[in-house]
Amino acid sequence: MAFSMKLSLVLFFTCSLFVQGTFAEVLCEKLPSNLCAFAIASSGKRCILETYRNEQGDVDFICKTTEVVVERMAGHIESDQCINACGVEREFIGISTDSFLSSEFTAHLCSSACYHNCPNVIDLFFNLAAGEGVSLPALCEQQKENHRAMLTLLSSDGGVAPGPVAAPLAAPIHY
Fold this sequence. Notes:
Residues 1-24 form the signal peptide. The protein is an alpha+beta fold.
């Protein structure tokens, strides 16, 4: 009886290692380009999408492993829900702080759907902002305050000057 129980445990342990190695291993170099950006390898290192010229001379994409280690998210491929909620693209090449200049991008990134549900994307942009001396939480708070101020202006009955009035068009001149 004890032997069969030990055998069962050994088989279970062996199978679990096989399944874990088969299904959970994420290698950047093996990812298709449409899953690369915002993925983290099983090693904990971020994946990055790069371009290269293929044998025909056309520009193509390749997924590579970076040296950037992400704590507590090894083997993560970002969900479609987060990609959409955060306003990012699957085939994103090169990440820049220029994206923070777009109020539309910042609104997506700072939205509750992204900021509270997509830690991988937020971690990436948090570190990117910090590298530029910007606090992502402060940027998001400023974005929310600006949005509230705009809503207040739009919903108020007064206090907003009317827009310019166009002069009437002159009658057409006939020759």
